[in-house]
Amino acid sequence: PAPKYRKDYKAPGHWTRHVTLDINLGDGATVVTSELDMERNADSPGSDLFLDGEELKLFRVYIRDDNGEVTQLQEEDDYSLNDDGMLIKNSSLPSGNKYTVGTVVQIAPKENTRLSGLYTSGGNFCTQCEAEGFRRITFAQDRPDVMSTFSVRLNAWPSGDFPVMLSNGNNPVPPTLIPSPPGGEKVDKSYAVWEDPIPKPSYLFALVAGDLGSIKSTFVTKSGRKVKLEIFSEKENVDQLDWAMESLKAAMKWDEEKFGLEYDLDIFNVVAVNDFNMGAMENKGLNVFNTAYVLAKPETATDLDYERIEGVIGHEYFHNWTGNRVTCRDWFQLTLKEGLTVFRDQLFSGDMGSHAAKRIEDVRTLRSRQFPEDAGPLSHPIRPESYIAMDNFYTATVYVKGAEVIRMYRTLVGEAGFRKGMDLYFKRHDGQAVSCDDFRAAMADANDVNLDQFERWYLQPGTPEVSAAGEYDAEAKTYKLTLKQSSKKEDTLPFHIPVVTGLLLKEDGSEGCVASRGLELKEEEQTFTFEDVASEPIPSLLRDLSAPVKLRYKYSDEDLAFLMKHDTDSFNRWEAGQQLSTRVILGMVEEIKAGGEPGALPASLIDSFRATLLEKDIPDKSLQAYALRLPDPATLAEEMDVIDPDALYKALKHVRRSLADALASELRSVYDSAAPSGPYKKNSAEVGRRRLRNTILSYLHEPRDAAAAKLCFDQFEAADCMTDKLAAVACLANFDDAGGAFPERAEALSKFYNDADGDALVLNKWFGIQAAADLPDLLSRVKDLMQHEDFTLKNPNRLRSVVSSFAGSQHKFHAKDGSGYEFLGDMVLEVDQLNPQVASRLATMFSSYRRFDEKRQGLMREQLARIRDSSPSKDTYEVATRCLG
Ligand code: HT7
Ligand code: ZN
C-alpha cells in the first residue's frame, strides 16, 4: 500500500455541498441511495471527480444536471472503479457549475466486523465514520475538507424492531409507520427524517437505529435556547446513564463560561454501544460512545470510571466547536482538533475536581505512553508527514503530546491571551476546514507575539531533554540558571520551550517561593539571571511540567526531600518524590543486573514515604495517594539504556515489599483510619479517601501471606462500591493459589463473576485483573481465560481486557523464552482477519523492541516479520513495517 504525504495536499476539484441519503435498514442487506449536490471548484476547472468507496456493491450511478435532466453513467465509458473508489470523467459530467451525482449501493452491516462504516452491535445499527468509514456506506468525497449539509431518510422493517432511528441535526419526522396501500399487502415499515443544517465533513455523519432505552433532560443555553438532551443505551442499562447526563450538562455550561461557546442545534443525543473500536465519537449532534465511557453506577463502576466518563463526555461535547464547526483540512492536521480538545477536557476535569491531581494523572499518561512512543520506531511529529492507514495515527503523540503543545501556548501567552487566541480562531475559521498553522497564527496574531519557532513542535518528533545548572552569587544576590536543550533525534533544531521556574530559599523553605518566572528557552543554551535572591535557592524547575520534555538537574537526595516538603507548586512536590523513588529503583536495577541482590532501602526514601503517609494536612487525599505510588514500569523503563524487564520487575517488587515491611504499622493504621465512616458517597473527599486507602492496600498485600489475603478478602466482602471491591479483588488475584493455597482468591473471583450477573463492563474488569495478575504461570492462565464462554475476539473491550492487559503488564509478556511475544503475534494475526484497526493497535505493543537486549529484540522482530509477511491488512502492515524500519 502506498503512503499519503502531507506535502501533497490539494483542494478537491469539486465540492459536495449537500448530501441526501435514503437508507433501507432491513433484515437482509442494506441499500443506500445517495445524491450528492456538487459544485465545481473554480480554482481547478475541468477536473475529473473522485468519489471514495470501499466494499460497496454498486447498482447504478447517475448524474442530474441543473436543468433536472438525468443521465445514467456507464462503467468504462463514464467512470472507472478500483478498490478505493470511483473516478468519473470530467467529460461525463455536466459542463455547468452545479450538478448532482446519484449512486445506489448495497452493504452488509451484519457482516461488518471491522466496526468501521455501518455495523450492528447487539442487534442495533450504528456507524463509525472517522476517519474513513463513510466510504464504506456510500460513494462520497470522504475527506474532511469537503463540508456539506445532510438530509437523511432512514427506512426500517419490521417497524417494531426500530422504535429509535437517529441521525445528525434536527428531526422533522420522528419514527413513523409507512401506511400500507389500501387493499394491498401490509407494509410493516417505518421511517424517520433527519436534517443537519450545519455543514460538516462526512466523518461526522452518524446513524443509530434499533430498540434502545433512554433518559432525557434539557439544557438552556446562555442565549436562552432550549436543547433537548437524550442518552440512549440498551434498555437494561438505563439506570446507569445519570452520571453521563450530569457530566454532559456540566460540560455544556463549562464551555459557555470558559470559552463563550454555545451549542448550536436543538437536539443533542448520545448513544452507548457495546462494540466500538475506540472510546467515543463526536458525530454532530449524535455522539456515539463505547459503553465503558457512559455507563456508571456505584456497584459496577469505579471512581476512575466516573472520572473517565466525565472527561470523555466533555471531550466529545467540546469537539462540537473544536473539530466540528472548525474542522481539519486533511488528516495530517488531526492534532488541530484532538490535541486542542484533549487540552480542553483536561481543563474541564481539573475545574470539576482537582487541578493538581488531574495534572499528575495526565503527566503519568504522557510519560508512560507518549514518551516511549516518541523514543521508538513509531515516533512521529504531532502533525505526521505521511501515513498508509490513517487509523494508525490516533496516537498518544497526536492526542497527549498534542494537548501539551496547546498547554504551552497558554503558558506562553497567559490564560487571557489564550482566550483571545481562541476567540480569534473561531472568528476567522468558523465553518472552515483548516490547518495547525491557522491555529498558531490565531494565537500569535491575537497576542501580537511571534510563534514562528513554535512550529517546530509540529515538525520535529522526539522528546527534547532540558538540562539545567544553577549558580548563586552570594555577594551580588543573583542566581544564574543555565538551560540547555538537546534531542536524541538527529538534525533537531531548538524548540521554543516555556520553562516555568520558581526559586525556594534553602535556609528557610517555609518562606516558599521567592521568584517564579516563565522562562522561554529558544536557543540551544541560554542563561537567565534572577536578581535580589537573598540566599542560596533550590530551583523548582518546569513547574506543572510546563513543557513535554525530560528535565535533567543534579538534585541531591536532600534537595528532593526539601522540594517534597516546601515546593509551592504541588505538581513539583509530587515530582520530587517521583524522582527520589526513581533514583532508588534504578539504582537497584543496576545492582541486580550486576548479579547482586537488591539491598536495603535508603532511610531517606522510607522517611519521605512515612512523612507523606502520616501527613495530616493534605486536604486532597488523591494527591496523598499519588505521592505514595511508585513510578510505573513504563516510565522507569524509559530511563534505562537497555530495558531489563526482569531486573526492573525484581527491583520494583523489592521496593514495594521493603516499604510495606518498613512502614507496616503506619500503613495499617492509616488504612484503618481511612475506612468508610458512612454510606457510599461520590464526592471528591470520598474519592480521595478511597484512593488513598486502596493505594495503601496495594502495599499491605505485598507480603502475600495469609494475613494479607485475609485483609484483602475482608475489604472485598465489606465493599459497598466497585472501587473498593475491584481494588481488593485485584490484590487477591496476585496471590499464587497453586496447590490450593489462598482459597480467598478463587472465592472472591467467583463471587465477583456471579455478582456481575452478565454485566459486560464488570466482566471486562474480571478478565482484566486476572490477565494482568502478578503470577508465574500467567500466560497459561490467560490462555485458559480465552476459553471461557464469555470471551470473544469480536468485542474490542473484551479482547483488550485479556490480551492488552496481559501484554501491558510487561513482565510475563517479556518472558525470555519469547512465549509472550508469540502469543501476541498469534493474536494480532487472528484479530486482523476480523478487525484491522484493533489488530494494528495490538501490534504496536511490539514497538519498543529496540530498547531491549539482543535476544528479546530478535524474538520480537521475528513476530513483527511474521506479521508483515502474512499479507495482513494495510493497518497492520504499516505498523509492522514501520517497526521493523
Ligand atoms: N475523534 C474520535 C476518534 C475515533 C476514531 C478514530 C478511528 C477509528 C475509530 C474511532 N472512533 C473514534 C474520538 C475522539 O478522539 O474524540
Ligand atoms: Zn477527540
Question: How would you describe this structure to a colleague?
Answer:
This is Aminopeptidase. Keywords: Aminopeptidase, Hydrolase, Metal-binding, Metalloprotease, Protease, Zinc. One of its GO terms (biological process) is proteolysis. The chain is α+β, with helices and mostly antiparallel strands and 885 residues long. The chain contains 25 helices and 31 strands. The strands form 8 sheets. Strands 6-5-9-3-2-12-15-14 form an 8-stranded mixed sheet, with no helix packed on it. Strands 17-18-19-21-20 form a 5-stranded mixed sheet, covered by helices on one side. Helix 1 (242-259) links the parallel strand 18 (226-233) and strand 19. The structure holds (3S)-3-amino-4-(1H-indol-3-yl)butanoic acid and zinc ion (ZN). The site of (3S)-3-amino-4-(1H-indol-3-yl)butanoic acid (HT7) has 15 residues, from strand 20 and helix 2.
Q: What is the structure about, briefly put?
A:
With 885 residues, the protein is an alpha+beta fold.
